[in-house]
Amino acid sequence: TPSRAPSATSSATSTKPATHAGQDSHVSSQLERPKTQSSLLVQKSITASSRPQTTTTCSAPVLNCETIENKIRMNIQHSWRSILKACKEKDVSKLGEISVSDFQDIAEKFNLDLSEREMKQITTKYDLKQNGRFAYYDFLQSCILLLKQQESSLLHRVTIQKPKKPLSPGLQTTSFLKAMLRIQPQIMHCWRPMKRTFKSYDESCTGLINIADFRQVLHEYSIDLTEGELFHISEYYDKTLSSKISYNDFLRAFLQ
Hints:
Helix content: 55-70%
Low-confidence stretches: 5-21, 27-31, 44-63, 149-167
Strand content: under 5%
Number of strands: 4
Structural class: mainly alpha
Distance between the termini: 84 Å
Order of helices and strands: HHHHEHHEHHHEHHEH
Radius of gyration: 32 Å
CATH architecture of the domain at 65-144: Orthogonal Bundle
Number of helices: 12
CATH class of the domain at 65-144: Mainly Alpha
Mean pLDDT: 74
């Protein structure tokens, strides 16, 4: 309150601020009152609706896709070349991706037997660029090749026999996947004797082989890599540019 003595006029007007003060105290007392059950329910509904839904919508399909892929893996392994050819025909821009509707038509053509819900989950997982398109190379490699994703933890790699000098894989580029898919049928027919041949070149038993010997072993089994294919495969398995490739990791990529 003002320190000066109130005059006649001020005393007349002083009742008005007093009224406001009374209203303020009344409002503050309302705010301090415990919330009723109805107000708490309203607040809960607002809080729940304001929570971001990204985690739920993105994580659910990824978690459930392993079951879906296991369901269709056998069918895809028998006809993946034809599926790849059909996808390439739809991929006019050669970007390694097609529209979701095109993939749905291809899945129906090759009797993948996916329900509407499963189709939604699988197309959400492989919409890698989040542009509404389906990355078919990544989808096929997950069913044909056993390659570790970049975000996988080190704990998952402990189960793989590692060389004495650990090598971390590089990026899974489309060119790398194309090269691996092309030679997959030949590798599947001769991987056991090929592994013995790799070991014969690996006199120190390090689990590693230099790139020239790696290419020579493949040539002995009538698998001839182009310069580009050799570059992309060695770029993946020799990220540190040591000129060495872990032949165990290379062969394991083809074994589901």
